[in-house]
Amino acid sequence: GGSAMYKIRSLNENEEVDNTFTFLTNNNLVAELIIKDKTISLLEIGCKSDNTENCDTKIYKAISKLQNGGTLFIPTGKYLVSHIAIDFDVTNLNIVGQGFESTLYNNTTAWTIEFLNKVVDLYIDNMSIWCNNNAYGIKFTKPIDGNNGRIRINNITIRNCRKGIYAHSMVYFDMKCVHIGVTNTNSDNNENYAMDYDGYEYNSFDTCSFNANSRSDFPLVILHQANWLNFFNCEFAYGGIGLLFDTENTTSTSGQININNCKLYNLTTGIELKISTKAINVIKIIQNTFYNKG
Q1: DSSP letter assigned to residue 252
Q2: How far apart are CA 64 and CA 287, in angstroms?
Q3: Distance CA 63, CA 57 (A)
Q4: Strand-pair partners of 32
Q5: What number of H helices and E strands is found in the chain?
Q6: The whole model's pTM is what?
Q7: Average pLDDT over every residue of 114-138
Q8: What are phi and psi of 18, to 5 degrees?
Q9: CA-to-CA distance for 61 and 72, rounded, in angstroms?
Q10: Which pLDDT does position 275 carry in this prediction?
């Protein structure tokens, strides 16, 4: 698919082609995909861009090939997925699209992409995730050993998901120009949110927007432990609580949090604190706009 190049060779003894990186030709030879510049395109590995064929396995295999460095490229199109569960460590991985029209579409009730192990130096840029009102966006699970670190998410849209981003045990987490719109057609809220976040050092959210499509029972952003966390030029709108600081179950005191030049509107509550003895040292709220129950 796409502009892929292949090496044609004989079939090795006991070899089974995987129909992702190796394919069997009509004359019983193997066509093996040539990976150029550590970059794999979804079209090169046989993903359909018309939302007709599930691409979970192919994307899993591609990220496995790139788990120590490289780029997974998402060309313009709509790629059907259900649950891409990455159960190995990932480092120096780029997941890059061509814009809003580079879309992963999830029609299940699972996370679209779930990182189950440690993630370090991950860059996600220029793509979108669309759900069917019941699926979830991106999840970073707390690793058994250490923390997730140096993760950048830029120019991303996550729409019609019950949960947008779950990111825990983060160090150096940066989001810029990210839009998360959550929704739910069910009566059971199941703790829906745009983002549930727990981070340790140097976390930044710049020009992001979070909304719940007028669902007043949805919190937009839930923050647990967060040291040196900054919100700049963000919008929190059309939901329940805009920012919920919930430190009741944290084990250490959070550091300074800055909320600067943000807009909070059409909410039941703008900012709510659920703070235990392990509280937040400093919260600076500067030049923000609150209106319509903000």
Answers
A1: S
A2: 45
A3: 10
A4: 7, 22
A5: 1, 23
A6: 0.90
A7: 95
A8: -105, 0
A9: 11
A10: 64
